[in-house]
Amino acid sequence: MVPAHAVRSDRQDGGVQPIVTPSEMAEIDAAAPEPVEVLIDRAGAAVARTALQLLGGAYGRRVVVVAGKGNNGADGRAAAAQLEGRGVRCTVIDAAAAPAVLPRADLVIDAAYGTGFRGTYEAPAPADPDTAVLAVDIPSGIDGITGAASGRPLAATRTVTFAAWKPGLLLGEGAGLAGDVEVADIGLDPSGARAWRVTADDVAAWLPARERSTHKWKAAAWLIAGSPGMTGAGRLAAASAMRSGAGYLRVSTPGAGTEVDAPVEAVVSPVGEAWADEVLAQLDRFRAIGIGPGLGADDAIADEVRHLVSGSKVATVVDGDGLRALGAAAATVIRGRGPDAPLVVLTPHDGEFAALDGAAPGADRFAAVRGLARATGAVVLLKGPATLIADPEGSVLVADQGDARLATAGSGDVLTGLILGLLAQGLTPQRAAAAGAFLHGRAGDLAWRRGLVAGDLVDHLPAAFAEVAGGSIATLHSRL
After folding, report:
1. Nearest CA to 405 among 455, 444, 459, 457?
2. pLDDT value for 160
3. Who wins on pLDDT, 474 or 241?
């Protein structure tokens, strides 16, 4: 388990990126030792600094500020005052009485409504659609918890948010409408946060250094994946596990004997019908096991999956057909491992989440992933454009690397193998899952803009690891 304080304590650069809900942010504001007027002035100064960056200077520039009646609007008005002091011509427009089309400007500052907005917001349009937009805290009309857009918000070029990320900047339409997000320090204390955005520095701090005296069995993993006629999932997961650091990888495909499609570096080990007992009897030399990709939905397979998960005392990641095998029995099976066994990592997409939880995750994905982690006693990795990784105590890590290119067959199998390889090296379950999701996304970012297939993700993993470590990413192709 990775308690919140442990997640924060070993950041190499101190670059903690907390995430708080609107209600948590309200508590942080209320606990501030300074009066609200001081905080507004600081927020306005932060917005003004970013505005000047977007403007490329002050002289002769024109800014329109759309300001609401709450603190968000007050921040915008404070920014206007700061900018006018630098010679920028500012027009402040009341959000409630804004025209359909704004006056011409070099920059629009959206300070109409903040993270607690309820209702529908039809944003006024810039006179020139190419005008840059700077959002204050969150684009107006975006739900601070779910990221859902209500009405017609303005798409921001950049968003300046205060003290911490908000879920709505990472989820749903908010992630796309926020543009580049800058977190401004205005003297508030978000140290009580229970969620954090994962960065490359975090992953670099978590990855273990290899000792000079190491050998392959120190990072040994066993993958139970694939089925006759469905071997590709196992091959992708196996290749990914080895690329991510498994020193020795054993691969078993129930019912396939030695006819297993596996990388040449992996060791194929046939298993019989009662394969869970076979695996359990030989786990003493292994540090982690992965179960599920391409196994099939046979009832006998499901029984073996549940038996293996409940009996395993090593780090375990379950995906795909393994998740469907656990289904509604996941909590019973996982808690049967005993308190001393490492936490199981479950890696569902929304459909697999429903098989485990009884319903698909709702709009509040943070609440959903926390609820399933608490109910099952497992680390739950909920896949999505922003991948959320929760432990049973409510700590959530968020990996928002990657893009729509990852939505391709076999991509999830690559992620399973990545997590397996990281578990085999000794990362805690939550960190292995979060680091795996981050590196998986970065591999996609480094690969082809079009034509990407899951095998390309495996090929680009070394570049992703090199980038995280601060080295060159030009390890695969001259174009990089």
Report:
1. 444
2. 98
3. 241
Q: Is 56 left (phi over 0), alpha (psi -120 to 50) or beta?
A: left
Task: Report the alpha-carbon angle 431-21-362, nearest 5.
Answer: 80
Tell which wins on pLDDT, 218 or 204.
204
In contact, 388 and 432? CB cutoff 8 Å: no
pTM over 0.90: yes
Report residue 439 as tokens: 């590196």
Tell which wins on pLDDT, 2 or 39: 39
* Residues 201, 290: Cα–Cα separation, whole Å: 26
pLDDT tens digits, 361-390: 999 999 999 999 999 999 999 999 999 999
Calpha distance 430→194 (Å, rounded): 14
pLDDT at 11: 30
Counting every residue written for the chain, the total comes to 480
Q: How far apart are CA 130 and CA 435, in angstroms?
A: 37
CA angle 416, 391, 436 (to 5 degrees): 30
